Amino acid sequence: MTADLNLNIAEIPYESGTIRFRYTRVMSPDRSRWIRHGSFVAYHENGTVASEGHYVDGKEDGLWRDFHPDGRPASEGHYRDGREVGVWRFWNADGTEGPSESHGG
Asked: Domain spans of the chain?
């Protein structure tokens, strides 16, 4: 993808009308579909951030974070070309840190 492509912001709501997903996307080269490219945020139904990260050409890339409905961290790790890489950290709902996982990449 080239930097001169027009980014489009998509907002997908819950039935209640609150935003469920907000992300940037570009049209595929053959103009047949949208491809996520850029920032991505998912929200819990209460409006707090559930997940945030970045897409490159439709694949997760870079740091991604997930959150519990009260806003506390749930997980954090990196993607490269759509695959989990490196050490991923996890937190329980009470805020205590859980076991981490290592992923090749």
From this structure: 8-103
Cα three-residue angle 94-95-96, rounded to 5 degrees: 100
Contact at 8 Å (CB) between 98 and 91? Answer: yes
CA count, 13 A, side-chain hemisphere, 93? 2
Global pTM? 0.88
Based on DSSP, count helices (H) and strands (E) in the chain, helices before strands.
Answer: 0, 9
CB atoms within 10 A of CB 63: 13
pLDDT at residue 79 in the model: 98
Q: Do residues 63 and 75 lie in contact, with contact meaning Cβ atoms separated by under 8 Å?
A: no
Q: Report the distance separating Cα 53 and Cα 75, nearest Å.
A: 12
CB of 37 closer than 8 Å to CB of 57: yes
pLDDT tens string 53-68: 999 999 999 999 999 9
- What does 64-77 look like in DSSP terms, one character per residue? EEEE-TTS-EEEEE
